[in-house]
Please model this.
Amino acid sequence: MMAYLIALDDGHGKNTSGKRTPYIDHLGHSIRENEFNKQVVKYLDTELKRNGFDTLLVAPTDVDTSLSKRTKRANNAGADAYVSIHYNAYDGSFTGSNPSGIELYVYPGNLNRKAGKLAYHIGSYLRKGTKQNYRGVKEANFQVLRETNMAAVLSENGFMDHPDEAMLMMDAEFQQEVAIEHAKGICDFFNVLYVREQSEAWFIGRRVESIFDGELRFYNQPSWSDTDVVGYLKKGYGFPEITARVPVGGGDQYKAVNSSGAVFYVTTSEKYVQVI
Ligand SMILES: [Zn+2]
Model:
């Protein structure tokens, strides 16, 4: 099967006029919108490639690439989806009213079509994965949404003129979070199982829970033996904290603690559990 091709758009050129935060006193300068967009596109590119997608960076340089050039590149390449990363602005000032939060856009009339579906998938992950207000999926007659032939979504991942969200723009952890949530939504839309980055111990301290429709066995020691089973997890139930991953016979188990600190062992198989 051929890989899906995702066109990634970093919104604006580095020096596109206007597209920046108000002057930030304690930094001594403003932050350009593209500084955020570009980093998220970079992380998203990595996320998508790891998950088996091909990507097309429609504006790979810092030069101000016109919107029509961006959409033409995606159309010519026959991309399967177009994702444009942005940061919002309200009135260009830190004073007065400062709305905050994330919103996604599709071309008018597309909420119930492919683009809308893609936007809802991405939005649901952004809503869960970030601490920000979730402002929903909206319609707008934006050029990159109008001139693209494939499912096209534009995300505004915060407000440049909200004092806290302006500072988030340069937070690498936040940039990565935004990229990961986009990648998860894109995976869902294309029915691809999202695979997270396998750094050595990414699961430590996280919750493990059953995604199995039946009853999932857990054990009081690293074992697959019937006699060591001490209970069953229903779907959605699990343990709040993984403390280790241990090899047991043919597969691994998570060593995890429940809310009272008792230690249990449960499979690491992604067919049965998810780590949140
Ligand atoms: Zn923008």
Q: What stands out?
A: The chain has six helices and 14 strands.
